[in-house]
Amino acid sequence: MSLYKTNEEVAIQRESCLMVSATITEVAKALKPGITTLSLDTMAETFIRDNGGIPSCKGYHGYPYSLCISVNEQVVHGFPGMYILKEGDIVSIDTVVFKNGFHGDHAYTFILGETSPEILDFVRITKESLYVGIAQAVTGNRTGDIGFAIENYTNGQHGYGVVREMVGHGVGREMHEDPQIPNYGRRGSGKKLQENMVLAIEPMITMGSREIYTLDDGWTIATEDGLPAVHFEHNVCVKKGKPEILSDFRPIEAAEKQNINLNSSYYQILAENQ
Ligand code: MF3
Ligand code: CO
Fold first, then answer.
1. pLDDT in tens, 172-188
2. Which atom in ligand 1 lies closest to the alpha carbon of residue 106?
3. How confident is the model at residue 255 (pLDDT cuts 50, 70, 90)?
4. Fewer Cβ neighbours under 10 Å: the N or C end of the chain?
C-alpha cells in the first residue's frame, strides 16, 4: 500500500474526512444530559448512510457500532449503550467514514455543562497539543517530531499522561496504514514524512497516570486511576512548509457554541489554528 497519495486521491479523501466532521457536528447538536449514548450512535449511522457513506467502524474486527463514545475515564473505543449522559460528563466522539474508496477518521471531545477550571484546562491543552503536533507534519520531518511535540506540550509542560499503547496512523484506502504516529518520541526519530502522506494525528491524553486497561467488552480503553482522558483527532496531509488539515472542526465548534448544553468556554484559542 502506497504511503503517498496523488492530489486527486487527497481531494477524494477530503470528502470522507469532511463527512466525519459533519457527522460529529450532528452529534454536537444533539448532545445533552438525559439521553443515551446509543441514541447518538443510531443517529450518526443514519446520517452517514443517508449521505452515501459507510460507517467504517461497524464490523471492523467485530466492533459493533458506528461511533466510539468514550466518557470521562474512558480513553477511546467506548461502546455506545444505555448509559445516560449527565451534566459534567467529558464525551469523546470518534468515527470513521468510508466513501469513494477512502476513509476519513477523526475525533472531538465535548464537555456537558458545568465543570471545573482544571477540566477546562485539561481539555483545552489536549486540543492545543493536536495543533502543536500537526505543525510538525511537514516534509523533511519524521514521525518522532510529531510525537515529541505532543508529549513535550502535554506531559513536559503540563504534567498530563500520554497514552502509549495506542497511536495515530496513516489513513487512506485502509483505516490504518503506515506510518504509526505515537504521541511521544524523540525529535528526528522514526519514519520520514513525505509530501501527500495523509495522517491521523490523535493525542490520547490522561489527566493523571498514563496507565490504561481494557474493559471486559474487549474494546473500551479506560484509565487505570479512573481520572479523565481526552482525545482529539484530525486528518492531515503532509506538505512542504505547512500541513493541510483535511478534516474541519469549525462546524463542530459552531454547533458546540450554539448548544447551550455544551461547555465551550475553553475553545477560544482554536479558531485561528484552522
Ligand atoms: N479512530 C479509531 C481508531 O483509529 C476508531 C477505529 S473504529 C473501531 O482506532 F472499530 F476500531 F472502533
Ligand atoms: Co484513528
1. 999 999 999 999 999 99
2. 1
3. very high
4. N
